[in-house]
Amino acid sequence: MKKRYIAAFLAIVILITGFTACSSRRKTQQITTSTPATAKITDDTTFKLSYTQSDSLDPFKAKTQNNQVLASLVFESLFDLDESYQPVANIATGYQYTDASTIKIAINPQLTFTDGSALDIEDVVYSIERAMDSPAYGSALSIISYVSSDKSNVILHLKKPDPYAVNLLTFPITGIKNDKDGYPVGNGRYYYKSSGTKTVLKANTSKDFEPYITTINLVNIAAADSIDNAVNIGNISYAFRDLSSSVSKRMSCAKKSVDMNNLVFLGVNSYAGITADANIRKAISLAADRSVLAQSAYSGYATAAHSIFNPAWPLSDETKMFSATADISTAKQAVAQSKTEPDKLKLSILVNKNANRLAAANLLKGQLEAAGFKVTIDKQDYKSYKRKIENTEFDLYIGEIKLSDDMSLYPFFDKNADARYGINSEKLTVENEYIKYMEGNKNIGKFILAFNEEMPFVPLLYKKGMICYTKALKGDMQGYYGNFFSNIESWNFNS
Fold first, then answer.
1. pLDDT (tens digit, 9 = 90+) per residue, 57-70?
2. What are the tens digits of pLDDT across the range 449-488?
């Protein structure tokens, strides 16, 4: 009997012990599964950008490069351009030309602004009309006559045919009304917000955007030299510099070059003097060593022009006509074909006091002299330089023009354009061939052939800009012109 009691007692102990162990295991499992995941590390204090406090944050009023660069973080556009200048639908879902001068653009109907309000057709029309009148976008959009809309499309009516006009639709789309704090509203990755007496950019997490940098602090730095110094010493984290002055050598920050659509060219007087002869103009182009100009005069922040068009654009490879290096022997043959007497082979290069262009003028002088020309440099202040160009008081001048993203050459071939000086449109056929190409009546080969024969101006190189950033900032900098912060979500300050 005693053994039976002992056995029963042991059985109960074992049962209780087993139950307790199972219960303990269940509790352990519950604790394990309910432990929260490690929170993502973020930063809302370190990343700083310069802005101009006295300028507007409204992208259609902003006049400074500072504030215009910020716009790409706050606002989305109808289309983005990739690094080869190809349009990628963004707020728009697609487009079609209904005729040579009319573009119908479909709009995504499900988008909202960062304040929760709907982004609709009226906002898009409003933004286009404001962009057409703005200092930042108005010049490029001057080809648009007017804009209309239907229930789901915006319709652009162009003043003249432009097969690449969709490339121009990269301006910000904003709400008709500002947000409750008075800031312009967009649907970008960040939005403007007050922080005490300051303005910051806050991450728009409603877009499934989860960056390390959750707050971007804005520092009021307006002067270009001050911006350069601030990014060098780390007072701001990141800046884009268009290198309008020769600053690349004094930048000690981390750097990345970015392609721009700024063409540096030789304007040529085809009305008078020896440059009125097409053979002389071709000889000048052949004698120019574009690779030396890009590497030496522009410190590598330029690409030799092998076509009229930007080297990053696919059509440039299809329309190659220039060698990167000089072809002195062929240049001398072109001079001989002109039958110009040796004592009249004199050229003057007009240039303003820009360091890069002065360096280019001195290099060109030696290159042209190797082909048999006698060359002088006419160095002027900008006011006198501009007056001489407008009065066609030059043989050659070194110019620079920012071409619009549709790659339009109308600035050279339109009678009221900025770069038409020296081009004798009554004598040359190249202007008419370009217009026929743009209208779709001729293929581009006819225009390229006419350009090569008549050389109305001499493309030299396409400038590059610079993204510079503090060395403490980590991540693969994939920014490019027009999309400077393309992969900002992967940037961080982790060691």
1. 999 999 999 999 99
2. 999 999 999 999 999 999 999 999 998 889 999 999 999 9
Determine the distance from the C-alpha atom of residue 187 to the mean position of all C-alpha atoms in its chain, rounded to a whole number: 20
Query: How far is residue 377 CA from its own chain's centroid?
Result: 32
3-state secondary structure of 363: helix
Q: Which of these, 490, 383, 486, 494, lies nearest to 76 by C-alpha position? A: 486
CA dist., res. 179 & res. 172, Å (int): 16
Question: CA 157 from chain center: how many Å?
Answer: 25
What is the dihedral angle through the alpha carbons of 234, 235, 236, 237, rounded to the nearest 10 degrees? 30
> Distance between CA atoms of 41 and 130, rounded to whole angstroms?
40
Please check whether residue 243 is in contact with residue 357, taking contact to mean a CB–CB distance below 8 angstroms. Answer: no
String of DSSP letters for 45-93: SS-EEEE-TTS-SSTTT--SHHHHHHHHHH--BSEEE-TTS-EEESSEE
Instruction: Give dist(CA 339, CA 353) in Å, integer.
Output: 34
What b/e readout covers 334-345, taking b as 16+ CB neighbours within 10 angstroms? bbeebebeeeeb
